[in-house]
Amino acid sequence: MSGPETVDRVLLTAAVVVLVVAGMLLLVRIWRGPSMLDRAIALDVCAALIIAGLGARSAAALDSFYFPIMLVLAFLGFTGSVGIARFIAVRDRPPAHRRPAGKEGKG
């Protein structure tokens, strides 16, 4: 193996190790929470880690087969994050301020 090929292998191995460690930390964040928003962000990061893992696999194999899959996963991750954010925004919206009955017009 030549010098550049060795450097490529070392960098790809380091990237995979970082992705695995990030995945383990991500699972801890999903498990512990503490809030629903933390879990939602962790799931969005999970999609990004899967995309990064596919990118590393594609670079290691010198194959562009995974690029359309990565694009679809990025789209699904984005739409999922927007959907979860809208759900949380509706759920956490404070109730509308209402005046007590019989108090209209009195200041």
TrEMBL record:
<protein>
    <submittedName>
        <fullName>Multicomponent Na+:H+ antiporter subunit F</fullName>
    </submittedName>
</protein>
<feature type="transmembrane region" description="Helical">
    <location>
        <begin position="65"/>
        <end position="89"/>
    </location>
</feature>
<comment type="similarity">
    <text>Belongs to the CPA3 antiporters (TC 2.A.63) subunit F family.</text>
</comment>
<keyword id="KW-0813">Transport</keyword>
<feature type="transmembrane region" description="Helical">
    <location>
        <begin position="40"/>
        <end position="59"/>
    </location>
</feature>
<dbReference type="Pfam" id="PF04066">
    <property type="entry name" value="MrpF_PhaF"/>
</dbReference>
<keyword id="KW-1003">Cell membrane</keyword>
<keyword id="KW-1133">Transmembrane helix</keyword>
<keyword id="KW-0812">Transmembrane</keyword>
<keyword id="KW-0472">Membrane</keyword>
<dbReference type="InterPro" id="IPR007208">
    <property type="entry name" value="MrpF/PhaF-like"/>
</dbReference>
<feature type="transmembrane region" description="Helical">
    <location>
        <begin position="6"/>
        <end position="28"/>
    </location>
</feature>
